[in-house]
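User: Structure please.
Assistant: Input sequence and predicted structure:
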Amino acid sequence: MSAARDATPVSAVETKALFADLASLPIIVLAISGGPDSTALLVLAERWRASLKSGPKLIAATIDHGLRPESAREAKDVARLARKLRVPHRTLRWTGRKPKTGLQAAAREMRYGLLARVAMAAGARHVLTAHTRDDQAETVLIRLTRGSGLAGLGAMSRISPLPAFISAPVLLEGERRSGGNFKQQGLLLVRPLLELPKARLIATLKSARIRFADDPSNQNPRFTRVRIRELMPALAREGLDVPRLALLARRLARANAAIERAADAAFADLLQARSPGPLVFDAERYRQLPDEVALRILGRAIAQRGEEGQAELGKLESLHSALGSALAARPARFRRTLAGALVTFEGDRLTVERAPPRRLQTQRLLPLTKRKGGRRKVAHQR
């Protein structure tokens, strides 16, 4: 796509195609911050809905993180635009203490948690965000610097589970306060603008004479994404531009989906015993699998039977390598733990089960000795 094409507004035909698979939904929540991307999402979604005889109810939601003095005013600006477009709008605020480190990650977690609450209160299962092709390219580079595997380098997909978990004391209207954490289930995150460059969204807003906010944190080099964004022009001059990175993400996502299908089939084929307890696999057939498929089977089994969720990829790869050596050498027994799971190889059985609880290492204090010189002496165990 040429630079000139990247600067053209999104057409009505394109808009219809962007949202076409969502037409049968009853309710959709739009995540609108007030920046150019999300403001364009609000405008385009409203145009699409207005073109239909019947379709989903749109609800716009703005999360005010309270991190900048301008955020409250920006939320009001979004509410004003939503009223003009006749889209119901809600503003939710992140109250309480903010962490001194990991602020962006905490804000992201809070944002998705609050969006989940809006969706569940409205009876919606789909939340739309305004991630663009530019965001996709930056995500590929960020994950590359962090050593992500094939699945991670596939970056963002159009539809994925909504990653929402919230423990902050935030209430929606009509909701009672209760202790503990809130965790959503079954909600989906949809990114309808993922194939569009940011420039086209800005062109769409300028064409409609709609103003948008400019978050200064998007220029702050403290944040990884900003530093990665500053590298993009130099990479583009070498041919590694946004379209190429987005294409790489699509190709890797396609390859990852094929491997996942192979892992599905192999998992079911090798599994000898499934119960609330151990997962037992045919060890020799596991050894003959391609490494990537075997690695995923091992990771799935650990996630299912362990107590700590998904194992870190590097640690999982180390365990898989050690297990492969053991399967080839055929020792009397192989026994390792990872992420709260116990992996055992013995005979022709590869077993993954919950690891036994760790024993508490407590220091045993020796009894007090007799008084000597008017003072008590205590013997310490070294």
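The chain has 13 helices and 13 strands.
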